[in-house]
Amino acid sequence: MADRLTELQDAINLQAENLCNAIGVIQQVAHPTFFSEFNWASRASRPEYQAFLQNQSTEDIARNFAVVITATARQLDALIGALPEEEVGPELQRAAVQRLIEDYRTEGRRLASVTALLESRLGDVRRFLTAIAQTQLTTQSLEAEISSRYSVNSMAIDGDSTIPEVVDFSADLPPKPFWLRYLVVLFLFVLTCRVVRALDLSNRVHNLLIFLCSVLTNSGRKRRAERKRLAADLRKMRDELKTINMIQQFAAYSKLERRIKSTTRQIEQLAPETFDKSVKRFLAIKLLLFACEGILTGWLLSRSPSVTLTKLELDDAQLRDSYLVPLLKLLYYLPTKLAVIIWICLCHWFCTPIVKWICSRKPVVLVPPAEDSDRMFGNRNG
After folding, report:
1. What are its GO cellular component terms (predicted)?
2. CA within 13 Å, CB half, 5
């Protein structure tokens, strides 16, 4: 508070000095009037002031003083606005001091942690420099030994040559997990499984199996040929039924209609087995799909990286004061398998709107159940 008042007093004195200087300069450079009693004995008639008036116009002088006075007035306004409106009591002062002390302690702890991290980094750098220097010395000694062996061919060198110590930096370097690629593969796997379920791939596999059985086995080929023959007969009977007059030839019409119904029942009996009627095949296909999904999920879990986050990456985030430090700490102490399972659950949640969008764009084809497999696969070998 005392510093603010002192700064305000200095600004007021500066403004008063600026105003006095402006008035004095105006009086000194002012031209004399016709009234002698109003004339002020100024120094404008002196040669040095005449030269000053010739070198600088009164507009420039006025502009300079106006700029200085305006800047000082703005400074005064800012200082007055920064003053407290009410008198601060001792309780508020103690609270403010306590708050400043807490901030000081917090920043001190943060400075100590950052200093400790930087000192550990400095120790690592010194250790690396020592290893590099040792490797360079060993290399120089080997080069000197090799050059001496090639220069003196007739001399036998006793003693074994020293084997340089191999400095392995791989243990000090942080691991490079392929988390991004791994998470993308998991997301694509979950999306594929959800799309397969949404598109009812099991029903398509069932129809494919029925078609293969009807083509590859003798009984299937016989059933298929018999069904085609009955379908051709049914078409002929329906065409013949259209030519018969029901009133004039009622007996022939009714007989032909009974034959059509009988042929239709035979075709339905020879129709390929539907997916809903085949319980064993339904369970087998469903179990096979679930087993494949479970095996692939377990394999992807076993191929997960060994660590979620390295200590070096966590230290870098703390040094940069990133807002993701709490999340990174949680990932650092979280087991990798648990993190992968959480990601799989999130992928299932994210894939739900995508699968709905894909299903909404899928064209709906209404096919009779008895002729489903023939429509899908029979026309290829028609």
Report:
1. mediator complex
2. 3
- At a CB cut-off of 8 Å and minimum separation 6, what does 117 contact? 315, 318, 319
Q: Which tens digit of pLDDT belongs to each residue from 10-59?
A: 989 998 998 988 887 777 776 666 666 655 555 555 555 556 555 666 67
- Quick check: helix, strand or coil at residue 307? coil
CB 29 within 8 A of CB 53: yes
Which two three-digit tokens encode residue 323? 């807002």
Cβ neighbours of residue 215 closer than 8 Å, sequence gap 6 or more: 221, 224, 381
Q: How far apart are CA 213 and CA 201, in angstroms?
A: 18
Residue 278 DSSP SS3? coil
CA distances from 159 to 145, 147, 156, 162 (A): 12, 17, 10, 9
Closest CA to 192 of 318, 40, 351, 341: 351
Contact between residue 53 and residue 44 where contact means Cβ atoms under 8 Å apart: yes
Residue 340 CA from chain centroid, whole number: 16
Could you tell me the sign of the dihedral formed by the alpha carbons of 81, 83, 88, 90, in that order? Answer: positive
196, exposed or middle or buried, with CB in 10 Å at 0-12, 13-18, 19+?
middle
- Look at the chain and count its residues: 382
Q: Are 206 and 282 in contact (CB under 8 A)?
A: yes
Task: List the helix and strand counts (H, then E) for the chain.
Answer: 14, 0
- Residues 109, 114, 117, 123, CA torsion sign: negative
